[in-house]
Every structure is written in structure tokens, then in C-alpha cells.
Design brief:
Blueprint lengths: L1 H40 L1 H12 E6 L6 E2 L5 E13 L1 H14 L7 H16 L5 H8 L6 E7 L1 H10 L4 E9 L7 H4 L1 E3 L13 E4 H5 L1 H5 L3 E6 L13 E4 L6 E4 L3 H18 L3 E8 L5 E6 L19 H4 L9 H10 L8 E4 L2 E4 L2 E4 L7 E4 H6 L3 H11 L1 H10 L28 H4 L10 H12 L3 E2 L5 E5 L5 E3 L6 E2 L3 H10 L26 E11 L4 E15 L6 E8 L12 H14 L17
Parallel strand pairs: 2-10
Antiparallel strand pairs: 1-8, 2-3, 3-4, 3-5, 6-7, 8-9, 10-18, 11-12, 11-23, 13-16, 14-15, 17-20, 18-19, 21-22, 22-23
Helix pairs in contact: 1-2, 4-5, 10-19, 12-14, 12-18
């Protein structure tokens, strides 16, 4: 019996040994298979995942190019700054974990954040509102921006005391002249709503900052760095896969900062004096089409605290067209001379009205039949005389002139939102259209397009589209001139000179009804060629042209005998009953006088001859 029990116990022992051995072998087989799976089949993926957990991509910012005027005066440039950020949720979790494992040394989240907010106020002064910063520090967000545009030295000082404060690189855009040329230069800034990590570059928001954003911004680089296992701290010397940043190019404008300042002041002044909704003006080189100044009566400061009203960031001088009125009579004048229809001294019998299709057009003043010279028709701005000449030009040739003058198409100056104006194709003209166009109604244009017509006269019949960027300078210092637009021959040099000379009579003051419409535009010692304009605004509600709302325009050439500059200006809905509200001639006079001094323009060799307008 005892032997039987012993044999049974021996058998059980051998069975257990076999089972244990089997389990051990099975475990080793499973472990081996798992090792094979991890090392052979999943090794590459797991290694990549571990790499991702240890690696972080850091943008390398590109320096944004500067914008300068034609004389090198800085209008916009960038300086290095920092943004301070914080991770409230992560920091609160770190403190809770610490306090659970370090009973002897406890951390207090509220005390730490209060100390940080107070210290930020001490170091940064008015940049910080302590209560607002404290609220952000104690929020339930993963990542919050505390303050922007911090000097790098002050940012490092704060991070040295509070290691959990995050510093982000910022390039702060500076506009040293404030609102000077802001409609042209525009504005660039950070978009603080960008996800973290933000694209470490400024964004153009308006003007050339927007239109030439890629050129100015350059291309940021990137570097992959390794971080600690439980922190975002970068491990020094462990960076790789470096892609260098390409800095942006500088931009040199055709603008003259001193002239731009003067023109902005004057547009604001005449905007107030005339009671206009808006005033815009441009000064253009008579030969090259370079824009020396482009201004509106309302400007904005791109660096103003609290941001800028988006409505002020538009540029009406290029975005808002208008009906030019009698300034457009220059088209008829050029056509009448070009096609041999008349001469400056030829006399025309001009009645008090003329019928075109179903419309009767009259002059701005009451008169019987007058014997007017061709020069007189334009100097006294006779609608009836202009339409008599336009009829002889004919619709087809008139439409061709409008096209050559660039009306109905954008100038291509390179500013955002530029309007082409409006001009119906000839095939869509109605019977009364040709009663409107020669006197500047039924089409619209920008102040640039209007000045461009007179630039054609000043440049001996060749229109050169305006430009506002003169050159770019690459990061390596290479200067690249902007392509010069090709000129468009509109009329012959002889026609341009003859028309230019005729339009000198607009500013003459003479007895017996021989004064032009704008003697107040005259500048002592200089021949001035130009034209006034008054256009009724279309009242959409009434479905007709208004009897009380007008566009007031002027375009002129200085000096007429040796053109250097073309100046154009427009008033939107001035108080027409006031002297300042029914003519822009005084505005032109002020600008032309400044130009003669600023650029030391020699006086005309001869005074403007007084010519008969009515015989």
C-alpha cells in the first residue's frame, strides 16, 4: 500500500514537472514570437513613434524686408521681439503630481501665478495689466498668449525667474512715420489666432505689405530638435535636418516721403474745407509714370495700439472710381487735333444747347450763340462746343482713344483692390451715350487713370502706366529694378503739344469773358496746363443724376512748357455752394507751388500767352 502511494506521488511529480516545463517553453515561444514581431515587423514603426515623441520641429524665422521711399527713408522695417505664453493645464498637472510625491516640499499654483503676474508688471510696465494676465495664467486652456512685442532681454529675464514661461520669437513691424503713406505701404502683423506652433513670420494685411507679402516675408526655415522625455526643454547640441531660412527682400518705392507727407496734409485740409466725404490726390512723374505721392484725406497709423479699423485700411485712390466730368474733355481735344478736325484758333459757332438722341445738353452757364475758339471751348468748358467736335471725331475713333488711354482697365500699379473703372464697349452704347462720354459722364475712372490721361499729354502723346515700386533689394544686396511698363502711343507728339498748349488757357485770367475756369490754379512764373471737372453723381434711388451731389476734379501739368509732374485730385460730394467745394483749382495751386520748391523746378522761359476764347 505504501509502495503504491509512493508510485502515485512520483507520477504526480513527474506530471507537474512536465506541465511546468511546457508552460515555460510556451512562454519562451510567445516571448520569442513577440520579440520577432517587435524587432522585425514593428521595429521601424515603433522607432519612428519614439522619434516623434522625442523630436520637435522649431521654425527658423525669416527676416521680413524693409520698405523705403525713393530716397531711402524707412517706411516699414522689422525688429526682433518675443511673445510670452503659458501652459496653464500642463503646469497645474505638474504641480499636482509633484505635491503627491514630495510631501516635504509643496508647490502652490495660485502663489506661483500671482508672483509671475506681478513680476511681469514690474518688468514690462504698461504692457501688462496684472489682473488680465493672472486670469490667463489661471485659465483652463492648454496654451495662452500673455503679452506680445516684448524686448528679448526682458523676456529672457522673466524666463530665468519662471522657467515654465514660454518664449516665442516675434518680428515686430515698425512704422516710424506713423500714418505716412499707410494707404500705400499697408500693414503687417501677427495673427495671434494661429495654432501653436505659429508660423513664425508676419502676415501682410493691406497695401504693399499684403500685395507683395511673399517677396517681403521670405521663406522660414526649420530645425528638428530633441527634447527631454517629460518636458519640452530642448536638449542642446541635438538639432538636425536644418533647413535655413531665406530672408525677405527690401522694397524701394517711387514715393517721396516729404512730398507724400505734404500731400496727405493737404488732402485732409481740403477735405475739411470743402466738406467732402473723401478727397484723393496723386502726383506722377510726367515722363516715367512713377508715382511720387498718392494720398487720401483719411489715413491710419499701422502701429496704433488696439489695431486699425478695417475700413481705413482700404485705399480709395485706387479702389473707388468716379465720373470725371469735364476733365475728360481732354479726349475730345486730342481727337479733334489728331484727326485734323480743327486748330486751336479756329472759331466755332456754339449755341446754348445741343440735342443728342433723346437728350438736350446745355452749358453750365446761360448764353446765346457764341463764337468760340477751339481753345475757348475747352478753357471755358463748353459742353455744347465739346459735343460738336466729338461728333466730327465720330464714335469709333473716340472709343479707340478711350481704349488707348487705358480707361476701363486697371493700370497695374500693383496695389490691392485696384478698380478698372467702368466703360461700356462701343457696341453697347445707346443713342445718348455719345452725349455723355465726351463731357465725362457715363464712365468712371480712378484718380490714377485720370492723371494718366494728362501724363499722356505731358509725355508727347505716349501713355506710361503708373508704377509705385522702383526696385527690390535681395538679401545678398543685389538690386533688381522693377520692369518699366511699355509706353502706349495715343496721339502724335505734335497733337500732344498743341493740346497741352491749348489747356494753358484754363488758368488764364483776362477781361471780356476771356478767363478760363481755373485762374486760381495758376502759379506765378510757371506755365500750367490743366482742366477742371464737375460731374453729377448718379442717384440710384431716384434713377437719375443728382442735382446736388457732385464729383469735383482737377488734373494739371507742371510746367506746361517743359513737363515735370502731373497732378490729379478728386472731391467726393463736397458742399458745392461753398468756394472750396466747387473747384479743386486752389488745391492744385498749393501742390504745384510745393513741387516747384521741393524739386527746384526752373521757371518757364516765357509767361503763358493770353489768348482769345470768345470772338
Amino acid at each position: 500500500m505504501r509502495q503504491v502511494r509512493k508510485r502515485a506521488q512520483g507520477t504526480d511529480h513527474r506530471v507537474r514537472v512536465v506541465v511546468i516545463r511546457f508552460l515555460l517553453i510556451a512562454s519562451l515561444v510567445v516571448a520569442g514570437l513577440k520579440l520577432v514581431q517587435v524587432q522585425i515587423f514593428e521595429g521601424e514603426a515603433l522607432a519612428a513613434r519614439a522619434e516623434q515623441q522625442r523630436a520637435m520641429t522649431i521654425p527658423i524665422p525669416a527676416h521680413r524686408g524693409s520698405i523705403v521711399d525713393r530716397n531711402g527713408v524707412e517706411l516699414a522695417f522689422s525688429v526682433e521681439a518675443r511673445a510670452l505664453a503659458y501652459r496653464p493645464v500642463a503646469r497645474r498637472a505638474e504641480i499636482d503630481k509633484w505635491n503627491k510625491t514630495h510631501a516635504d516640499v509643496q508647490l502652490d499654483f495660485d502663489k506661483e501665478t500671482a508672483a509671475l503676474a506681478k513680476r511681469m508688471r514690474e518688468v514690462l510696465g504698461d504692457q501688462v495689466v496684472e489682473a488680465e494676465v493672472l486670469a490667463k495664467l489661471r485659465s483652463d486652456k492648454k496654451y495662452v498668449y500673455l503679452v506680445d512685442k516684448v524686448e528679448p532681454a526682458k523676456a529672457r529675464e522673466l524666463q530665468k525667474e519662471f522657467a515654465h514661461l514660454t518664449l516665442e520669437y516675434r518680428a515686430q513691424r515698425e512704422y516710424p512715420a506713423g500714418s505716412l503713406a499707410s494707404n500705400v505701404v499697408g500693414r503687417a502683423n501677427w495673427r495671434m489666432e494661429d495654432p501653436v506652433p505659429a508660423n513664425h513670420s508676419l502676415h501682410g494685411l493691406s497695401g504693399l505689405e499684403l500685395f507683395r507679402d511673399n517677396l517681403l516675408a521670405g521663406k522660414p526655415g526649420k530645425q528638428i530638435v530633441e527634447t527631454g522625455e517629460r518636458t519640452d526643454a530642448v536638449i542642446p547640441g541635438r538639432g538636425r535636418d536644418l533647413q535655413g531660412a531665406v530672408d525677405g527682400s527690401d522694397m524701394e518705392l517711387t514715393i517721396d516721403a516729404d512730398l507724400q507727407f505734404f500731400l496727405q496734409q493737404k488732402t485732409a485740409e481740403y477735405g475739411q474745407r470743402s466738406g467732402s466725404k473723401r478727397v484723393s490726390a496723386v502726383v506722377m512723374d510726367a515722363k516715367t509714370g512713377e508715382v511720387y505721392a498718392l494720398a487720401n484725406d483719411k489715413a491710419f497709423d499701422p502701429s496704433a495700439p488696439g489695431g486699425v479699423d478695417p475700413k481705413l485700411m482700404s485705399d480709395p485712390s485706387v479702389t473707388t472710381p468716379f465720373e470725371p466730368g469735364s476733365v475728360n474733355k481732354v479726349v475730345t481735344a486730342m481727337g479733334a487735333i489728331e484727326y485734323g478736325i480743327t486748330t486751336p484758333d479756329a472759331v466755332h459757332s456754339v449755341p446754348d444747347s445741343i440735342k443728342v438722341a433723346d437728350r438736350v445738353i446745355r452749358d453750365a452757364w446761360d448764353h446765346g450763340r457764341l463764337n468760340m475758339t477751339t481753345t475757348g471751348i475747352f478753357a471755358k468748358s463748353s459742353n455744347v462746343g465739346t459735343l460738336l467736335l466729338a461728333k466730327e471725331i465720330n464714335e469709333t475713333r473716340f472709343a479707340e482713344l478711350l481704349g488707348k488711354l487705358g480707361l476701363g482697365t486697371r493700370t497695374g500699379i500693383g496695389l490691392p483692390g485696384e478698380s478698372p473703372g467702368s466703360l461700356l464697349p462701343q457696341k453697347q452704347w445707346s443713342g445718348s451715350t455719345f452725349g455723355n462720354l465726351p463731357i465725362g459722364q457715363g464712365l468712371s475712372m480712378t484718380v490714377l487713370q485720370m492723371a494718366g490721361m494728362y501724363q499722356t499729354l505731358a509725355n508727347d502723346g505716349v501713355r506710361v502706366p503708373p508704377r509705385i515700386v522702383r526696385a527690390t533689394v535681395r538679401p545678398d544686396g543685389t538690386r533688381v529694378e522693377e520692369p518699366r511698363p511699355e509706353g502706349i502711343r495715343v496721339v502724335s507728339p505734335e497733337t500732344a503739344k498743341t493740346t497741352r498748349d491749348m489747356f494753358r488757357a484754363v488758368t488764364q485770367k483776362a477781361p471780356n469773358g476771356n478767363s478760363g475756369t481755373a485762374p486760381l490754379a495758376a502759379v506765378t512764373g510757371y506755365q500750367i496746363s490743366g482742366k477742371t471737372g464737375t460731374a453729377q453723381q448718379f442717384d440710384k434711388a431716384a434713377g437719375r443724376y443728382s442735382d446736388s451731389k457732385y464729383w469735383i476734379t482737377f488734373a494739371g501739368i507742371l510746367p506746361a512748357d517743359n513737363p515735370r509732374f502731373v497732378v490729379g485730385m478728386v472731391y467726393d460730394t463736397p458742399v458745392y455752394s461753398t468756394p472750396e467745394g466747387h473747384s479743386a483749382a486752389p488745391f492744385f495751386h498749393d501742390v504745384a507751388s510745393f513741387l516747384t520748391q521741393r524739386y527746384n523746378i526752373p521757371m518757364s522761359k516765357e509767361p503763358t500767352p493770353i489768348v482769345p476764347l470768345i470772338k
